Write a sequence for this structure.
């Protein structure tokens, strides 16, 4: 009997770093680390990137801008996101859009995990 091999999704414009054609537990692909932010890029190509993050309590990303839209899905816990001066608490199962070029920041009052999808414009 032939041994089944795991495949990884690929495209002409980039690579995926996760199993193809297989349901997975996203939150389980990244682990918390004390006093750290852990990230794992799952997909990266010309259209954008999809990255998992695990924030330990008290960690964050200072205010910055990005030239592309960023969609956050919180997978575990809750994060505090400030977008263009407006504070938002985003909890497990919720999502938040951070539009291109608007200043935004992330803070973890408690541990949380998120999936970040960044999409470049066609410009």
């Amino acid at each position: 009997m032939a041994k089944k091999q795991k495949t990884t999704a690929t495209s002409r414009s980039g690579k995926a770093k996760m199993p193809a054609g297989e349901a997975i537990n996203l939150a389980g692909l990244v682990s918390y680390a004390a006093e750290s932010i852990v990230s794992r890029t799952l997909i990266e190509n010309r259209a954008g990137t999809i990255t998992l993050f695990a924030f330990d309590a008290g960690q964050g990303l200072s205010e910055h801008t990005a030239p592309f839209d960023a969609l956050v899905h919180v997978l575990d816990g809750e994060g505090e996101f400030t977008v263009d001066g407006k504070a938002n608490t985003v909890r497990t199962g919720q999502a938040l859009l951070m539009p291109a070029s608007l200043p935004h920041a992330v803070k973890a009052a408690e541990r949380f995990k998120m999936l970040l999808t960044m999409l470049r414009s066609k410009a």
Remarks:
- The two ends are 50 Å apart (CA to CA).
- The mean pLDDT is 87.
- The longest strand covers residues 69-83.
